[in-house]
Amino acid sequence: MSEYSYEILPRPVELGGGWRLRLLESDVEVGGGVFPPSEFSANKADALQLAHFDAEDEAYAWLDSRKTVPADPNAQELQRRRAAVEFALANVGLSGFTISEAERDRMRRFVDGGMGLDEFVKGSPDHAKGGL
Fold it and tell me: How many domains does the chain have?
C-alpha cells in the first residue's frame, strides 16, 4: 500500500524565494511545484505566508485526490507542525537571525509530537533572556 505525504521547503532567495512543494508517494517524489512570494502583499512576511498557504492548499488537494487516510491518525497534525516550524525558520533566516541548536532541538520535539503547543510557545528559559 502506498503512503502519501508532502514536504514544503524554503526556496533560496537567489531562485526567487518562496516555497517548494514535494508530493511524495512512499517517500519518492512524484510531483510538486514552486510557490514564489505573493505579489499582492504589502510586506515580505505576508507574501511568504500567502505562498505557504497556496503550497499547503495544493498539497491537501493532492492528498484528497488520493482518497487515502494516513496510517497514523496524528499524521496531519505532525505535518502541520512541521510546516509551521519550517515557515518560522525561513522567516527567521530571511531576517538575518540564526536559531541555537538547543532551540532547534525544541522545534524537533514539537514537530515529532514530544511537546505540546502550550509548552512550545512558552519557549526555553534562554529564549526568555533574549537569546534565540
Answer: 1
